[in-house]
Amino acid sequence: MIFNSIEFLIFGLLFFVAWPYFKKQNQRRWFFLTSMSFIFYGWWDWRFLFLIIGSGLIDYFCGIAITKYPLKKRLYLIISLIGNLGSLSIFKYSTFFANIADDICQWFNISSHFSTSIPEFAIILPVGISFYTFQSLSYTIDIYRGRLKPTNQIFHFFSYLSMFPQLVAGPIIRARDLLAQLQTDRIASPLQKWNGIKLIAFGLFQKVVLADNLSYFIDSAFEGKGNISGLPYWWTVTIAFAFQIYCDFSGYSLIARGLAKYMGYHFKMNFNHPYLAKNLKMFWERWHISLSTWFRDYVYIPLGGSAKGFFYGIVFMCITMILSGLWHGANYTFIIWGGLHALFLTIERLTKLKRRITNFGFGSLAIVITFIQVCIGWVYFRASNYHQANDIIAQLFNFSDMSLNFISTYFDNLFYLWLAIIIEICISIRRKYSSIYTLYKKYNLDIIMVALAIAMSIFMRGEGKQFIYFQF
Amino acid sequence: MAPKLKIILLTPITLILILAIKLFIPAKENVKTKQEYFWTLKTHTPDKFDIIVMGDSRIYRGISPEDLTKKLPKTSAVNLGFSSAGFNDLYFSFAEEKLKKESKTKVILLGISPHSLTPSALKNEELKSYLNKSKTDVFKITKLANIYKTLNIITPSQISNNLTNTNKPYTNYNQEFYTNGWVKSSNKNPNINIALYKYQNIFNDNKVSEEAINNLSDQINKWTKKGIKVICFRPPSTVEMEQLEDSLSGYNEVEISQKIITNGGYWININSKNYVSYDGSHLHYQSAIKLSKKLGLDIERIIKQAK
């Protein structure tokens, strides 16, 4: 069930009609939230429920065992890690690893059939597996580190793990943030409700108006249907994809946060206008914040972080970025994407060039350079294989073909790219000049903006598509 | 303003905005939604018919069931043509299911183009994609179509045309989708070379399959034994196209027609010179009507002869 569907509209209405009744009492609230979340998730394929229940149960019991048997707490943590990372390896990475094994065998002229021997059930990728696995993992790790007390209530745990607004595409919520919120009957104030509505409307607009309308142009390019080439074309495609993935994922996060807010809960911000970042470090502080901080807290810092010196700091950062790439998908292209970001971040740390540019008063130039680096990374992220990505990168710097004929062909799609860029620029200006924000608030322009977002989501909606991040 | 008031005011403001958009920007019918409705209905209609028309795009654009049955009173017909459809078992069973069991004049009309017997057509990708639609999707597309119609999409070009008061044609293709499965087609700039150019490569490593012909013959035999009249013809296009297809595809009309007749089917000869195509492959709607009427008369004659 996706947010921009009729099924979800009906589901949401039913949920919010019944919610005030169920939320008053703890057990009833947790049970209701868990059951509705399972319906929401099982709508894709009811068999996926076994996996989330299975990995959830491992962590629920491991969490209790870690505090009950402190001497064996390492063992229970390992069980939890094996349970979570094991299911992730089977369902997400088995085909990829089998292909690698086949490739290696081929180099040594050994006949192998690993990729064709994978059981059929392991080929299906359960929706959102990477999200809830990481969320579940953070629960046991935090208990192991003594930063969280486990819950003894199974529905309390599952209402945290499977809470439908963020179940399939995040934000990845930490147990210590949400378990406590779920422990009381939270009454959403009118302001929270209004903010929730705003987030849902803007999220829907980002997804169905901006991201979905860009998808045809981008898909045509990457599938070779457009049969167009040239530097301006491929830069437009790359920039369009940068905005498509941003609007798609940020749109989902906004809707998730809005739904939670309307229920009385608070999810932290997941995107903070990342394309306005002046360097890549800032970009990663603004892009998919819940995942970046997860990797920081559970991979980068445990490895040693920057505490072991400059050199090791860079090595640990590279490991973290490559793992982050692998988290996104079982393909070499994602590893290259993570590797490219690691390379750019290393250069950034070594030269401090962008900080100098910003200090000289050329902040906008630093934003543009950072954006170009991010776009180059997106080519690998979107391409079906690294050969295709390399070809596109070559096109991006091929100055011999400067044809602009594609603009008239894709006028309708490119309109939404301009709209997305203009919105980001407006936000940047609004942040810079507080007087504009004061006027915005004074004249209650937010009502008009929300109404406009809803109307545009109805009349200017693009072709309905799944959220891109569901596949991760 | 208090947030509570904002929440209350949001609904009327949004409704006013929606009404204003509907009034001042007349939305064009969403072709994609219309097509989706047309194909889904064609695939999942629960209705049963006396005459089933089968074939590829030359058929769904070339045969109008309404004109086909003009001389056949109390006879219902449907056009079950699909893009790049190929004659295989999946397509046969799908079509047979749509036949009215109690009908006294069960007819299957097959438009056998060279491409419909090639390996690429036998994949029946288009048909499969619609057959694989979930029940929920079918319900949404067929039953909620009217809601979608009132919420037609407005494109930036439409807004720009409205503002500048121009009415540029979005496409030269004119298509009207009929619930009986026909697509009434024409083109503002007809050019018979469009398809000719495309068809020069379409049969590379994709020749007419002997196996497909035999399978089709066997199926005709089975249908005939069940009392179904199977009437076949080669969909007309242009003389140039027929020559090109004959030279490149391995299609032998005489041989195929003989096999069909041997297995109990009927073959109708069609002369492409009598019809007009707008792109070299598909018939202009006026020719489609003409062809449908002609085939209707042929069906009437065959039914009478059989009695």
Overview of the structural elements:
Chain A is mainly α. Chain A has 2 domains: 6-185, no CATH class; 191-471, no CATH class. Chain A has helices at residues 6-22, 26-42, 48-68, 73-107, 129-144, 154-162, 175-182, 190-222, 231-263, 280-286, 289-303, 310-328, 332-351, 353-359, 363-382, 386-396, 406-409, 411-432, 434-442, 445-459. In chain A, helix 6 packs across helix 7 (175-182) and helix 15 runs antiparallel to helix 16. The longest helix of chain A is centred in the first third of the chain and has 35 residues, at 73-107. The radius of gyration of chain A is 23 Å and the shape is globular. Chain B has 307 residues and is α/β, with parallel strands linked by helices. Chain B contains 15 helices and 7 strands. A 5-stranded parallel β-sheet of chain B has the order 2-1-3-6-7, with helices on both faces. In chain B, strands 4-5 form a two-stranded antiparallel ribbon. In chain B, strand 4 and strand 5 (183-187) form a beta hairpin. In chain B, helix 11 runs parallel beside helix 13. Chain B is globular, with a radius of gyration of 23 Å. Chain B starts with a helix and ends with a helix. The chains are: A mainly alpha (472), B alpha/beta (307). Chain A binds chain B through residues 6-7, 189-191, 193-195, 197, 411-412, 415-416, 444, 446-448, 450-452, 454-455, 458-461, 463, and chain B through 1-4, 6-7, 9-10, 13-14, 17-18, 21, 25, 27, 32, 136, 140, 144, 151-157.
